[in-house]
Design goal:
Elements: H1 2-20, H2 27-71, H3 73-77, E1 103-106, E2 113-118, E3 121-127, E4 137-144, E5 147-152
Parallel strand pairs: 3-5
Antiparallel strand pairs: 1-2, 1-4, 2-3, 4-5
């Protein structure tokens, strides 16, 4: 009887994983179905129809109970991330902030994207001439919305 209980409990656990963590028809759902059905089948085969019916009823009740408990909001409150994200989206650059021809320096390596410092502002930029090392002088080639393209300044 122990193996039957283990099969059914594992099947129900895989169903819960299917419902909550891996939505869709996946290995967890199919595996849960197979284990649960096989557990009930083994109960009928090994212990007869009376015990098999009781195992089937118990499996249905246990499945409904476990799914109901796992879908309650308080169950997942303990697992939820409760931090606020206070970041903002860069809305765009005004022409006074950054414009074509401005000079700046790279804060990180541009490969080809990275951080630059231009006119006292830290922005993300893209190099049009490949990789540019950190702390290199750059020139703004174009500004389109929040997209800044730069090129390294050739030292004479």
């Amino acid at each position: 009887m122990g193996i039957i209980i283990i099969l059914i409990v594992l099947g129900i656990l895989l169903f819960v994983i299917e419902f909550l963590l891996v939505p869709g028809v996946t290995v967890a759902g199919i595996g849960g179905l197979i284990l649960t059905v096989f557990g009930v089948y083994k109960a009928f085969e090994d212990y007869g129809s009376t015990v098999g019916v009781w195992v089937l009823i118990g499996t249905i009740v246990l499945s409904v109970f476990v799914i109901a408990i796992s879908l309650r909001a308080r169950t997942w409150n303990r697992l939820m991330l409760k931090t606020d994200i206070d970041g903002t989206v860069d809305t765009g650059l005004t022409e006074e902030q950054v414009k074509k021809g401005d000079m700046g320096t790279t804060l990180t390596r541009l490969a080809p994207m990275g951080k630059i410092l231009v006119n006292g502002l830290v922005r993300e930029a893209k190099s049009i001439e490949g990789y540019v090392d950190a702390n290199s002088e750059i020139e703004i080639v174009s500004v389109e919305g929040t997209r800044i393209s730069v090129k390294p300044v050739k030292k004479a």
